[in-house]
Amino acid sequence: MTKEDHKHFKMNGNPEIAVEQTTLTRTTSQHDMKTEFTMVNIASPKEDEPKSPRMSVASSVSQDSSFQLTMDEQSKVEREMSKKEVLDLSPSKTVVIFKWIVTMVFALIGLGCLVGSSLSFIEIAARLPGADNKESCSAFSTILLILFVPNVFNLLRSLWNGLRRHDMPWPNKKSINWIFLTAVLESFGLCVFAFKIFSLHLFGVNGLLLSTSLFFIFPMTYLYKCRNLSDNPRSVKILCFVAIAFLVFGCLLSLIGGYTFMLKNLKDTWLIPTAVACLTLVWSPLVQKRLINLNGSSGKQEEEEPNSPLHDVTDKGDLLVTKRPQACWKSAIFLSACRMPCIVGFSLLLHFVDSDKYKNADAIDSFRASLDWHFEHIEPRMLITNLMCTFGGYFITSIACRITMQRGAFVLPLLFASPIVFSILSVETACKKITSILHPDNLHMCQNEKLMFNIPAIVCVFIALSISLGWIIWTTNTIVLCTEAEIFWLPTFSGILLMEWLLLSRRNRLTEQRETPTCVAKKIKVYICTTMYRETRNEMKQLLKSINRIQKTYSDKYYESHVFFDGGVKDRTPTDFALQLISLLPDTLGCDIKSCNRFMTPYGMKLTWELSTGEPGLHTDLLNSRKMKFAIHLKDNRKVKNKKRWSQIMYMSYVLDYLVKHNNDSSGNNEVDDYNAFILTTDADVDFTPNSVDALLDLMICDNTVGAVCARTHPVGFGPLVWYQKFEYAIGHWFQKAAEHVLGSVLCAPGCFSVYRVRSIRDIVTTYASEVEKAFEFLTKDMGEDRWFCTLLVQSGWRIEYCATAENWTHCPEEFEEFYKQRRRWIASTIANLMLLVQEWKKISMFNYRVSLPFLIYQALLLLSTLISPSVIVLIVSGGLYYAWNLDGMSTIFLQCVLCMGFAILCLYFSNNTQLQIAKLLTFLYACVMMAVAVGTAQQVVKDLENHLHGGKIDASDISADIQISMTSLYLGSLILFFMIAGILHPRDFMCLLHGFWYLMCLPSGYLILNIYSVCNITDRSWGTREEKEPISFSDMQSWYEVFEEKAKKIFFCCKKDESTKTHDQNSTSSTHRHRDTSLSETNDKINSNFKELVIAEAKEEQRSKNTIHPADRETKEQPAHLLPEPIPMTVDQWLDQDFKDEYGPLFKKHGFENTLYISGMNERDLKNIGIRKKAHVTFLLEIIRDLPEFRIEIKVPNNVKDWLHDIGLEQYFDRFENNKIITAKDLEVLKSFSRREIETELKITKAGHIARLLNAIKHLRNPTTEELKRIEVKRALNSIAFFEMSIINPDENAFWATLRETCLQPGSAAFGHTEELMQKLGELRNNFLMTLAVSNMLWLILLATLATKLELKMYGTDPIGLLFLSIFESLFVIQFIGMILHRSITLGHYCARAPYKFGQSYNRLSAWKLRDIKVDLSINDLKTAHKRALSFAKEKNMKIKTMFSSPMNFFKRNGTVKKGEDMMSLLENS
């Protein structure tokens, strides 16, 4: 026997329990058997607590004697595909190389801009003391513009960003006073530098070096003061002292080198310290914090906007991410406005008054002459160079910080800019060679300096900045895509001293109390909520694999997953689709079905699991304290409302009112913040990755005014219809969503894969849960719930963004009928929400500044284009046929109009199935026509190009004699160009352009036929996709002569016989069966009663023994498992009330509905066919039938006929089967070919209920598939799981669900509803919509067709109205194209921000500390030894303990039980 001791600590979700695990391995060579015994010893602080099932002895035995068949292994394709499905968060090497390239490009551009800005300004300033008054005045004008233009730009940008924000506070009076004071001081300091120090005539290059050295002494002292905010104050203290020493030494060297200059201008030496003092004081964080008003705002602002979504004020106003916008942009308005007059005043004072130039008689004339600029002069060149370099340097460096490139593209360029500038200025020959690029001759800034003093001074400044400000900014973390206000204190840069401003104005970890990305990530709570109905197995598997990727991802963020299954349970029996989902859990999520907790809830049933996080092999035993909760909520449609919107309301309210509010720490404080809690909504067939989720959260966290973020959706499937949708989805995301993102706000974040902020949902969930009371509300609320939800978000002031970095894949309709039904809802919802947006624009713009007038005009034009799209299609087809087959345009237009009117009439008066079949036929015919249209249009475009290139005959449709191209050809060419450029900018989606062929062929179907179908079927309230097929009525199984007999009896009622004796005989034939049903029913009632009493008694006893358990942990309480009894049928006499038993009992028995086994599933038509006519009685019976359990027939091939008949409840007919020699399982094969007539004639079974039961059983008479076998196993496994009543185990959650159900989820009665009134109003709304659509398109067709014949009214080859609308459509495309370009640049920055610098690293996230960063390979003795050494060292030095376990302890903290200063070992020892 060999012994291997592997000792680890396993927290098991409880820090008070330490698990010591020892593995003993015994190998016996004789039997080649290996047995592993795992002994688990539990150290619990309370011995009286019951033991957990985890405290057990596990044994695993593996024998090699069993054969391993080859067919049991995976095939090569399956193995390779499974490898690709393994979680891999690391990007490709190309991404890493690309980020390095972008960083180097940004660094070089930034460095060039900083150097160019300094050199160009110095060259202009060096011309100020020239003898020529004109040259001096030209230099003055240029410097004044360099100082003035950036402030004008800052003012305009601040007005744009500040005045639109109603939620941004204005600075108070005290802050305004500070702004005015700082504007005066800053303007004076800048002007002194510009007109005195940079001119080089007073102090030379050594004066610049001296001022630069002095510039950073005060900031170093401020950093020294803030050293306690650092993790290592001692290091900051040392580095600040060393940096100050280097700066002082650099000042001394500069003074020695410029000694001669100082003696000549001794009276002006006060300018250097004065200017430096003004600027360093104004640009210091000490003053900047007062300007942006971080700690308060005016009371007026708070009174005006109490309902603002960002009204909440946090005490920690100086965090990296604040809940409330700071006053930076509105403070910048005052600052920029005050700077401009101060700059003009100080410039005139220092240049004219101080130098006595105003005394010259020709000063004014020289100044006027200096304004006569020409580009060959050096002044305009230097001005343009300086402004381009200044603006470029600022934006390049700020973008570098936003996309997490601040080390390479911000810090390094700033550190190397000054040494390069001073090196160029100090060496005259090098200066002339390099600066000749700016101007070939007459350079004034190149001077011969003493290198022996300048070079050491430059090195001192470089070292000082590198070890102080450079190192601090280098180690400061920023959140991905943070705003300018989070990078700089005030984003109002100056025209000179850009390098100094960037270094001092950059926020860092010492100048403010910042939340690190790790702290931000730990606050994030993500609730994955999915709505599910009748998805296929592969679709469900796709979702579960995505959740599994989240489960296995190492992240500090908290994830929790909930699936809300519509119609997932009836009574206590899960449906087949619910069982299908549960059967996939072991293979996808790796959880055991029997390990779940099952609860009966007010809405149905809840199943919960705890999924272990982490990958195998990375010490998950130690780091497995955080488990991911996974819950399946099975809705019983008899208890709560069905359909997707009500499922969404359930999970929204569940997160908002229960999960968030009940997530408290040990002190009772709420751990979850509405701004840092998010709901990730998914469809049941979506496929996504953790990287996509992180990308969505990036946009959420960097801007708290964002209420939702949607991703790029890729349709999945095969066939021409799927290819059509791939192109449609591509251009929809490329152009429309990107344009909406840039212009204002995206109007629809689809529920298939989007992230919503909990705070934003809380603002609108009340309205979203309202009932449909008007016809127009039906279009918004029930036809497109996602679109209406986003409209409510925009109305409430929230912004919705589109993140192309995040991607998801979802199944799209592959069948024509399903596609048309889906788009029927989408089109009606889109039009209704756009109309709502346009109608309520004034009210929306009051709450949401992003819904501006240009954005409204853009949406109104889109609505107009949607309205007239049918007539546009008619004109396109007509024009194409004219080019292709030379058909008369008016005739083809008239023919298409008649066709559309006929299809509209058909949609109004025929069934939906007929409509879809005709629509399919018209789609095919139009596709054939579009092929000819495409050929004819292409021929015309080629002809136009030939005429334009070779000068052919001028056509009436040509734009002009010089441009012999028609406006149509030009429009089509621009569209093709836009699509090609968009495809190039989306290289991974470029192949979608190939599917544009199918999109073109189906263009009439999508914009003409589908629009008519959608408007005509507004009254259709069905969902359209994944609908349950209507079950076959029992009456449908009656033969024609039975129907004729019943009709005859109704007419000739006098011939009706007395059926009392016949009924008695029929009852006697099944007396044995009824007697069995009665006894079993009584037994069932007793079992249910005893079981409920037992569960209640045991739960109350356990609740009394464990009354100290937290409510959130009540789900985990153990109870003995009880098997739920199978539903047992009751006889019709037991089932019916006493009043109905005598009246309707014989009718049920006559037609074969003797017990609930046959009655379950009957509908209104069945009840009427057996003779029940009274409406009130039919309604009552349908209600109690709906409450009956489903008596399902198991799919199998029985051993013999007798057992099979007993299972289906028809054992009374065994003798008839025996007479027909149907006895064994082999004999049952003949039943597969039996029809109703053969059952009646050969088996002598005539009752409708029995025949229906037998036919249903014959359908299930087959070998079950693998999927069906899994469902059967799952059903058996669920029946063996402990069953709890939530009202006893978790009364708080049960009370929540009961309250929510009573508030808005109670299923309403159709009789007491307003369905008939709503349908009538929907019919009126449909007629209005149809009339509006017909009239507008008809008028548009008549107008364009008439103008086309009037040649004298043509402009640029087309009529004025056509030209106007072509211009409008072209403008829409141009706007969308520009929006796409801008959004692609944002997406590229997001990609670069998330990309790592090292191969093999994962994408950058908010989390800086991940589980995979920790390697634990320590034994118990090693941990104890390390801890004892730490204790002894702390005792000797009289220090507090801060061991290597402080970071892991943050991970093991739970409910605040770990005290400050306590490490992991002490915790384990104490427990």
Q: Based on CA inertia axes, which overall geometry fits?
A: globular
- Measured by DSSP, the beta-strand proportion falls in 5-15%
Which strand order spans the largest sheet, edge to edge or round the barrel?
14-17-15-16-13-6-7-12-11-10-18
Structural class: alpha/beta
Count the E strands.
Answer: 18
> How many H/I helices?
57
Please give the oligomerization state of what you see. Answer: single chain
> Can you summarize the main beta sheet?
11 strands, mixed
Q: What's the pLDDT, averaged over the residues?
A: 77
Contiguous runs where pLDDT drops below 50 for at least 5 residues: 1-65, 294-324, 615-625, 1053-1122, 1407-1420, 1441-1471
Radius of gyration: 40 Å
Q: How far apart lie the N and C ends?
A: 33 Å
What percentage of residues falls in helices of 4 or more residues? 55-70%
Features:
single chain, 57% helix, disordered C terminus, 11-stranded mixed sheet, alpha/beta, disordered N terminus, 57 helices, 1471 residues
Structure description:
This protein has 1471 residues and is of the alpha/beta class. Helices cover 57% and strands 8% of the residues. The chain contains 57 helices and 18 strands. It has an 11-stranded mixed β-sheet with strand order 14-17-15-16-13-6-7-12-11-10-18, sandwiched between helices. A hairpin with a 7-residue loop joins strand 2 and strand 3. Helix 4 runs parallel beside helix 12 (328-353) and helix 7 packs antiparallel against helix 17. The longest helix has 39 residues, at 912-950. Mean pLDDT is 77; it is low at 1-65, 294-324, 615-625, 1053-1122, 1407-1420 and 1441-1471.
